[in-house]
Specification:
Blueprint (H helix, E strand, L loop, with lengths): L3 E4 L5 H13 L4 E8 L13 E7 L9 E7 L13 E6 L15 E4 L20 E4 L12 E7 L21 E7 L11 E4 L3 H18 L3 H4 L4 E6 L6 H4 L2
Parallel strand pairs: 1-2, 2-3, 3-4, 4-5, 5-6, 6-7, 7-8, 8-9
Antiparallel strand pairs: 9-11, 10-11
């Protein structure tokens, strides 16, 4: 049961975001946005625990710098979701674009479908925060580029799609964190900075914790997802390009 419905039809993004913030200041805990059509910066920088349901396709930089809310997108999303996000969760019941979780240092992104390029770029852990991005479909090039911390999980669930699970330059410049893939990534797609590892007990615990919540959010079968083998990818070095700048 929502506390407030905001009709975004024809509403400029600045006015829409003002209405959202005003509703939160008035104590609204659940806000439904309808007729969303590309409005940018929704939930950016918001610190409350509000639940924001989005009906339609939000514009770029959804949940940038966000610090607490839960944002549910009942469709696709564009580029830049979770840019420098600090806390909270974004659940996307469709596909999403490029550069998700840029510099993300906390919180969770749960995407049901495919994603574009450079997902998880510069993602990092901050203090005791461990950001998590889970993708149900496939990903483009540069997945986990320059990743410094956190957890990326790629599930490749669409069995009818013959494309590889991920594009080229996987983990290029990676120097922290861990990437888990349901299946195996061809070695020629990996950046030189990435090592392949078998799943161990600690990894099983991480996958269980992350994927049970993901499956609850997106109404998926956890046991079915876990019936396939996962592989782990970690960085070779914490300073992969150190000698380019200092000796």
């Amino acid at each position: 049961m929502c506390d407030m419905v905001i009709d975004a039809k024809g509403v400029y993004y600045k006015e829409l975001n003002k209405r959202i913030r005003d509703a939160i200041l008035r104590g609204k805990k659940t806000i439904d946005l309808i007729n969303i059509n590309g409005q940018r910066y929704i939930a950016d920088g918001i610190n409350s625990g509000t639940v924001i349901n989005i009906n339609g396709v939000p514009g770029q930089d959804l949940a940038a710098f966000m610090n607490g809310p839960t944002v549910i997108v009942n469709s696709n999303a564009q580029d830049g979701v979770g840019n420098t996000m600090n806390n909270g969760k974004v659940i996307i019941h469709g596909m999403a674009g490029d550069v998700l979780g840029y510099g993300m240092r906390g919180g969770k992104l749960h995407i049901l479908g495919d994603v574009g390029y450079r997902v998880g770029i510069h993602m990092k852990s901050y203090k005791d925060q461990v950001p998590v991005i889970i993708v149900g479909g496939k990903a483009g090039d540069f997945f986990g580029e320059y990743m410094a911390g956190g957890v990326l999980i790629l599930l490749n669930l669409n069995k009818d799609d013959p494309r590889p699970a991920v594009g080229d330059y996987f983990g290029t410049g990676m120097h922290g964190g861990a990437i888990y893939v349901r299946g195996v990534v061809d070695k020629h797609k990996l950046g030189a900075e990435v090592n392949i590892r078998e799943i161990e007990e600690d990894d099983e615990r991480i996958l269980e914790e992350c994927l049970k919540e993901y499956c609850d959010d997106l109404k998926l079968d956890y046991e079915d997802i876990m019936s396939a083998k996962f592989t782990k990818y970690i960085p070779v070095s914490r300073r992969p390009y150190g000698n380019l700048y200092a000796y």
